[in-house]
Amino acid sequence: MKRVTVRYMVFPDIEGGVSGFYEYDDDSRCVEASIFYKSGRCHTVGDGLDELALKVGFRTRKVFAEELGKKSWENEYGKALSLAVGRKLERDGILMVIDGDEVLFQCLEGEFVSWPRQKER
């Protein structure tokens, strides 16, 4: 099993289920192993984001949107899911299968940067 350190995640298309893990919050591309999607490389597409949410004890996009009851829910979902993912990465790691290979994504305690990162002024 491959082990990969990540400290940040991005959500290029929450409705489309696209998310990616980065080693550092200012990196320009996601960590390997990754999968292809229409605009590059990432770690979840479609229902994969819901599967990730359930792995970390969070809600699917549909349930979250229904509970929130707002037309625009994506940013709030990304913020909340990012916090849940960060806790899981720091505690146990997240095991995913990428192109048939098991990959354990992990983060050292206190190093995960939640999404969206705050830009320095």
Q: If you had to describe this structure to a student in words, what would you say it looks like?
A:
- This protein is α+β, with helices and mostly antiparallel strands.
- It is built from three helices and seven strands, in the order E-E-E-E-E-H-H-H-E-E.
At a glance:
The chain is an alpha+beta fold.
List keywords for this structure.
single chain; 121 residues; alpha+beta; three-stranded mixed beta sheet; two-stranded antiparallel sheet; 3 helices; 26% strand; globular
Order of helices and strands: EEEEEHHHEE
Alpha plus pi helix count: 3
Poorly predicted spans:
none
- The outline comes out as globular
- The radius of gyration is 14 Å
Biggest beta sheet summary: 3 strands, mixed
Helix and strand layout, with pairings?
Elements lengths: L1 E4 L2 E6 L4 E5 L12 E3 L2 E3 L4 H9 L5 H8 L5 H18 L2 E5 L2 E6 L15
Parallel strand pairs: 1-7
Antiparallel strand pairs: 2-3, 4-5, 6-7
